[in-house]
Amino acid sequence: MSEAAAPAQTAVTVEGVPAPAAPLTGKPMVHAAPSYSSTGGSLASMAGSLVVVLALIFAFAWLMRRVQGLRPARGDALRIEGGLQLGAKERLVIVQAGEARLLLGVTAGGISLLHRLGDAAAEPQAPEADTAALPSFQQAFGEQLHKLLGRK
User: Would residue 108 count as lying in a domain?
Assistant: First the structure.
């Protein structure tokens, strides 16, 4: 008797349209309007979190730079003395490894020992070319320019 006597509950929403009923309970679903008063607080919270994350990243980078400086010095165990680029990914490199000097071929596929050059102190220094006999770039360029202009 109570079920038949009780009127069906209907919630009226905007424009007089009744709210849909929940599937299990049969009660009308009423949705609350979004609250925009907390938007400023959530933006401030998000910005604060972003600042904290960025500060942690910078602190970690600074710490890593400091830790690298604390590594024990190994001296000059390996040192690259010079090199020559042969192609896009190929080079010749002279490496000082302790007392030995090595000529290495470096490619994209690996590193190969090409020749042992011996001690750095035992190697005679290459005589420097007589720079007085060679014309300067300016002189050589001027001569070539005169030749080209004279032919036309």
Answer: yes
Using DSSP, state whether 59 is helix, strand or coil.
helix
The residues with which 96 forms a beta bridge, in sequence order, are 79, 101
Element (H, E) at 83: strand 78-85
Q: What are phi and psi of 117, to 5 degrees?
A: -90, -20
Number of residues assigned to the chain: 152
Q: Does 66 map to a domain?
A: no
How many independent structural domains does the chain possess?
1
Residue ranges of E strands in 1-99: 78-85, 91-97
Residue 33 lies in a domain: no
Residue 131 lies in a domain: no
Longest dimension (CA), the chain: 124
Tokens matching residue 51: 């600042």
Model confidence pLDDT, tens digit, residues 109-137: 999 998 888 765 555 555 555 556 677 77
